[in-house]
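Running this now, will post back.
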Amino acid sequence: MSFLKKILSKFRCDLGIDLGTANVLVYAQDEGVIIQEPSVVALDNQKNMVLAVGNDAKRMIGRTPGNVIAVRPLRDGVIADFDITETMLKHFIKKAKAQNRWLKPRIIVGVPSGITGVEKRAVLDATYHAGGKECYLIEEPMAAAIGAQLPVSDPAGSMIVDIGGGTTEVAVISLGGIVVAKSIRVAGDEMDEAIITHCRDNYRLLIGERTAEEIKIKLGSAYDDGEELTLEVRGRDLVSGLPKTFTLTNAEVRDSLKDTIRTILEGIKTTLERTPPELSSDIMDTGITLAGGGALLRGLDKHIETETQIKVNIAPNPLECVAIGTGKALEEIEILKKAKSLISE
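Update: finished.
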């Protein structure tokens, strides 16, 4: 039987999927991360049809005619529109299987630790309808910890903070399971919103989501390192309605992000307060690991280190940690089932 399984595995393309609010990443067995595209679908309202998915759809955000809308079917880490999410998953699964394997794949999807039973069922249903043979869910902090190469199976505490687009996942992991976890529905999207609000309130200028994200990447920071940066930003004047250019500084952006960063920091502190003393001692030794796109915010690691007095490490490939973790979970699927780290119903 094991020989037959080995033969069949050569024809199956098992997939690990990081179904994120901002991006979808797909990990294929033996190949690594093969797809990394925005969680966006462009629809034609009049014809009720999908025009584009992923990168092609994101390019349409804010630039579409009246009959075309660019939709993000996931909000705060969970499915906001079931049908569109299913369409998006089908697109990425088909793309991942392009080299042609004829067996349906086993799929593991990373989900936020704080989602409800109904939300879990919705993700599983969407994955089955999109073409999965066996579908499992794994909590994102566990997947991120596996992807960040933390010793999750050891009888020692490891702390992971995964800052994505819609949620920030904070968890302490030991012996292959999550001991304490907190899911905060504040992350990268809220940072973008804060920048949009700052520009509107202080400059009476309206900017779009893509511009806000660009500002966050180029000027965003959580810690004042003394460096002064500026960026010319184009937007629409709310008074005249005409296009206008203004200059933004990194100090302004840092100030606009402070409330979002404070919320994330409070989540980390709350999780530390609920951690058993023995595991707290381990975390003091090994430190806190940051993963997700938010980990790349300039100075965030120093800011958390200053506030908690615990060393902070940024995971290798923070953007791909959850996807890599779901992929590695495919290899340890039976062990994770026994540890009840996978959800299948």
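The chain has three domains: 2-39+76-143+321-343, 156-186+261-316, 188-256. More later if anyone needs it.
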